[in-house]
Design a protein that fits this description.
The chain contains 13 helices and 23 strands. With 561 residues, it is an alpha+beta fold. The chain folds into four domains: 83 residues, 2-Layer Sandwich (Phosphorylase Kinase, domain 1), CATH 3.30.200; 171 residues, Orthogonal Bundle (Transferase(Phosphotransferase), domain 1); 127 residues, Sandwich (Tumour Suppressor Smad4), CATH 2.60.200; 128 residues, Reverse transcriptase/Diguanylate cyclase domain (Alpha-Beta Plaits), CATH 3.30.70. The strands form five sheets. Strands 1-2-3-4-6-5 form a six-stranded antiparallel beta sheet, with helices on one face. A five-stranded antiparallel beta sheet has the order 11-10-19-18-16, with no helix packed on it. A hairpin with a 2-residue loop joins β8 and β9. The longest helix has 21 residues. The radius of gyration is 28 Å and the shape is globular.
């Protein structure tokens, strides 16, 4: 017997004796969304109804997953999903009803009114970034971020319709001419247009294009490349004129064709940098995560292998950088000889260099009269004993090690090795290969935004430079301290929202990119930095600096040496 289909859903239809339909809000690939009044909670909600004719095996499970995923996010800039229920018309997803208009409509209205103000742009950009970061924090991707999937409601931007990328792909593949993996081609990254597949990096590209559309008031064509022409040739209203250099640069970086060069959503920031003078913020820099601190039980009772030493730097044995030395006993001998409990094959580590002892949650490193000494972090003197807490570093000879709580081949260990492949473990600065890419990106941005760019080249000088290119341990320790302080001061003086591009270029040399300020302003910053850092150095060492001006069209990497 053929089942009689229910009548079409219209204003006045009551679903499940509970949801009183008020109006249709729009149709999508998998169904239709309605505005409804929930008689039970006495609240207005949005209902997504999956039409029977468009259903396929697995849809019910996919909808259940969407409910669970949406509930796991729980963020004010992401639409809340309340419930999933069967109905005569098919499964219904009950969602938060967000009054207002889509960002697509909002952009069209602002176009007629003369564009966005800088602060209005900042607020929407910041909230979209925060919502996307919350989605990514749960290990999810959106897969179809665009102005039409962002609601602007009473001053709040809310991301809609996420966590359904795989199902959206399946549904859209049923429609002739639809892209093979769902989404909207106008906002897809180059790699997704080529190969398909949603990813966090593709989401960031879509978000950057969405924010770009707020400047241009034009929907981008599929595959459109905003970085090919200068910014001002393409924008309709000069919103960027009211933003900081860093805010504009984040969008430029988000539009990079290389997904590895795009920032993460959680690192993107949009607000007035003049506020930083009264409320300093933590810059979202990449760092070596030592893992979670040991709990109370580990502090009272020793657990073999619960902590390890991660090798972060070795002058003469770069192949051991990133390796882990598990701490499997309360007393361990460390040295270069193979009979030591912890064997470190670095030429400047003595055969029997130090003894490690565990005492109620702390490690103590006792130097055994080594040739090249043991050093605490940010200290120039040799130490007979070094106390090492979770996340702390110690240097033995010319080898640095960090106390961590993760094990070999764990996800944290893999991330640590990725970090150390890009960054010099002594200073935390980019290694040359990655510095080249990052500094070229700054140069391309300077050309695109038509702003000045300079590179500050720093060098530590001392009496040993007359004799050898090989740094002494004192110089290594001074380089670490100087480089980190130079970066901090530069970012503070420039009121940075994003970490400065900086890298090591020689035994005692490093560079810092400065984009935005004029050559005179940049020179003033460098002079202040040198004056302050010089006071932290040993008397025998001097920090020198030169400033090199970038030229439009010239690769920025040529300014490094």
């Amino acid at each position: 017997m053929t089942k009689t289909p229910p009548p079409p859903i219209t204003a006045g239809t009551v679903i499940n004796d509970r949801y009183d339909i008020r109006q249709s809000l729009g149709k999508g690939g998998m169904g239709e969304v309605f505005l409804a009044f929930d008689r039970s909670t006495q609240q207005t909600v949005a209902l997504k109804v999956v039409r029977e004719e468009s259903r396929m095996p697995g849809d019910d499970e996919a909808l259940r997953q969407e409910l669970l995923l949406a509930r796991s996010v729980g963020h004010p800039n992401v639409c809340r999903v309340h419930d999933l229920a069967p109905s005569p018309w098919g499964p219904i997803l009950v969602m938060e009803q967000i009054p207002g208009q889509t960002l697509h409509t909002h952009i069209r209205k602002r176009k007629a009114q003369g564009g966005y103000s800088a602060d209005e742009f900042r607020k929407i950009a910041s909230e979209v970034c925060n919502g996307l970061a919350a989605i990514h924090a749960q290990g999810l991707v959106h897969g179809d971020l665009k102005p039409g999937n962002v609601m602007v409601s009473e001053g709040r931007a809310v991301i809609l319709d996420f966590g359904f990328a795989q199902e959206r792909a399946r549904a859209s593949a049923r429609r002739p001419g639809a892209p093979p993996d769902g989404g909207t081609p106008n906002y897809m990254s180059p790699e997704r247009l080529r190969n398909g597949g949603a990813s966090p990096e593709d989401d960031v590209y879509a978000m950057a294009l969405t924010l770009w559309e707020m400047w241009t008031c034009r929907v981008p064509e599929p595959g459109y490349k905003p970085r090919v022409k200068t910014m001002k040739q393409q924008i309709m209203f000069d919103v960027p004129a009211g933003l900081s250099i860093d805010e504009v640069r984040q969008i430029f970086r988000g539009l990079n064709e290389d997904p590895s060069m795009r920032p993460q959503a959680r690192h993107m920031r949009f607000f007035n940098p003049s506020q930083l003078t009264t409320s300093p913020i933590q810059l979202p820099r990449e760092r070596l995560d030592p893992g979670p601190p040991p709990g109370g039980a580990l502090k009272l009772n020793f657990t073999p292998g619960a902590q390890s030493l991660l090798v972060t730097y070795a002058t003469n044995a770069p192949e051991i950088v990133g390796s882990l030395l598990p701490l499997h006993d309360t007393k361990l001998a460390l040295g270069r000889r193979s009979d030591q409990s912890l064997c470190v094959p670095e030429a400047t580590v003595s055969g029997a260099h130090a003894i490690l002892k565990w005492q109620t949650g702390s490690w103590f490193i006792e130097d055994q009269g080594s040739t090249n000494g043991s050093y605490a972090d940010f200290n120039y003197e040799r130490k007979s004993q070094v106390s090492l807490l979770h996340g702390g570093e110690v240097q033995v000879g010319e080898c640095r090690m960090k106390l961590v709580t993760f094990g070999p081949d764990s996800p944290q260990h893999r991330r640590a090795k990725q970090y150390l492949a890009k960054r010099d473990g002594l200073t935390g600065l980019l290694v040359r290969e990655h510095l080249m890419k990052a500094i070229d990106e700054d140069g391309l941005f300077a050309d695109w935004a038509e702003v000045p760019m300079q590179v500050a080249r720093y060098e530590l000088r001392g009496p040993n430079r007359q004799v050898s290119e090989r740094p002494t341990i004192l110089e290594m320790l001074a380089l670490r301290k100087a480089a980190q302080r130079v970066i901090d001061l530069t970012e503070m003086l420039l009121l940075s929202l994003t970490p400065a591009v900086a890298g090591r270029t020689g035994p005692l040399k490093f560079v810092v990119s400065i984009v935005g300020p004029s050559i005179d302003e940049a020179r003033h910053v460098v002079e202040q930095v040198v004056a302050q850092v010089q006071g932290m150095l040993p008397e025998t060492l001097e920090l020198g600096a030169t400033l090199v001006k970038g030229e439009p069209g010239r690769p920025a990497r040529t300014l490094i040496d």
